[in-house]
Design a protein that fits this description.
- The protein is mainly α and 177 residues long.
- The protein has nine helices and no strands.
- Helix 1 packs across helix 2.
């Protein structure tokens, strides 16, 4: 089977993700991304006219990957609900260290539409979970608790110990049954 050759947009996003992991998204340099991707700065700017658009592309790419992982987890773990898969995947995601979220504020200031893909994704996910979860109270508790955990992780304001996070996740999985 022939492997698909990455287009310049994919190469730029992959390079930006690598640079962001190394330096933090707030320190992301367009020159560093272009160099890592093996494209000219003009080629980068053709695909992403601003740093905020590049960051938005990274977020959209992350959301696509999260959606694929969620679908895979929901179908591969026979019998596990999509809500339980969402809880597990999100909890796993929160275990990984995240760089400071200050870059988000810069991106929003430069482009107020930066949050649109995130809002759309979360709205669609919540609606799908609502369609599949018979107990709306359980869904609300689980969804909001996980979103709170994600926010604490993103903004480096986690006040829970590792044992408390595990207890929270176990409790949410019990509620999600």
């Amino acid at each position: 089977m022939k492997t698909r050759r990455a287009n310049s947009r994919d190469k730029i996003l992959a390079a930006a993700a690598e640079v962001a992991r190394e330096t933090g998204p707030g320190s992301l340099s367009l020159d560093a991304v272009a160099s890592r991707a093996g494209v000219s700065k003009g080629g980068l700017l053709y695909n992403f006219p601003t740093k905020a658009k590049l960051m938005q592309g990274l977020v959209e790419d992350y959301l696509r990957e999260f959606e694929q992982a969620l679908e895979s987890r929901a179908t591969d773990n026979g019998g596990e609900s999509r809500l339980a898969a969402y809880i597990r995947l999100s909890a796993d995601d929160c275990e990984e260290p995240k760089p400071s979220a200050s870059w988000i504020f810069s991106a929003i200031a430069e482009d107020p539409d930066f949050m649109t893909p995130i809002k759309t994704f979360k709205q669609q996910l919540f609606e799908r979970l609502k369609d599949e979860t018979p107990d709306i109270k359980a869904l609300l508790v689980c969804f909001l608790a996980i979103e709170g955990l994600r926010s604490m992780n993103l903004f480096d304001s986690d006040v829970l110990s590792q044992d408390e996070r595990r207890l929270l996740v176990a409790s949410l999985l019990e509620i999600a049954k």
